Amino acid sequence: MKIAIASDHGGLNLREEIKQLMDEMNIQYEDFGCECETSVDYPDYALPVAEKVASGEFDRGILICGTGIGMSISANKVKGIRCALVHDTFSAKATREHNNSNMLAMGERVIGPGLAREIARVWLTTEFEGGRHENRVSKITAFENKVQG
Q1: Which of 2, 38, 106, 147 has the largest count of CB atoms under 10 Å?
Q2: Active-site residue identified among 34, 36, 83, 98
Q3: Domain 1-146 CATH (choose: 3.40.1400.10, 3.40.630.30, 3.65.10.10, 3.30.420.10)
Q4: How many Å apart are CA 14 and CA 21, to the nearest integer?
Q5: How do the domains of the chain map onto residue ranges?
Q6: Which positions are catalytic residues (predicted)?
Q7: 72-90: buried (b, 16+ CB within 10 Å) or exposed (e) per residue?
Q8: Is the pLDDT of residue 148 over 80?
Q9: Is 70 exceeded by the pLDDT of residue 99?
């Protein structure tokens, strides 16, 4: 598995925690920034990562900002992305099993590093169940293809 990860200024510390987790799990990743504590615009980081996941260059992506909201909204504008904003382990598991999410967003100002690591671990190790959920995800994809061509 190959992961693309990025944050804005509000997610720097949590991004480092998640990178450390992926190192411990021997998961390959590429860090797309940011590298500053001054204010930056989250779409400048979310959109390129989402495009890399949508193109298949990366299997999944992880985005972190202050709340995770801006990153998830931005990522979900890219065709083929199912980015889930998650702040608990139950949702992390469910969004992989039921929604086949290919991107995870979290908020550094919402959760601490221990919980964020556990959320990421669960999300990274949970597979899509398929079955009845495949039909639901396919409906989203069909609509997206109709609207965005």
Answers
A1: 106
A2: 98
A3: 3.40.1400.10
A4: 11
A5: 1-146
A6: 65 (proton acceptor), 98 (proton donor)
A7: bebbbebeebbbbbbbebe
A8: no
A9: yes
Mean pLDDT calculated for residue range 80-91: 98
Annotation: binding site: 8-9, 66-70, 99, 109, 132, 136
Number of residues in the chain:
149
From 34, 36, 65, 87, active-site residue = 65
* 57-76: average pLDDT: 98
pLDDT surpasses 70 at 149: no
Could you give the CA distance from residue 42 to residue 65 in angstroms, rounded to a whole number? 7
Mean pLDDT of the chain: 96
Q: Which of 26-35, 102-111, 129-138 has the lowest mean pLDDT?
A: 129-138
- 34 included as an active-site residue: no
Q: Known catalytic residue: 98?
A: yes
User: Is the Cα dihedral 93, 130, 56, 72 positive or negative?
Assistant: negative
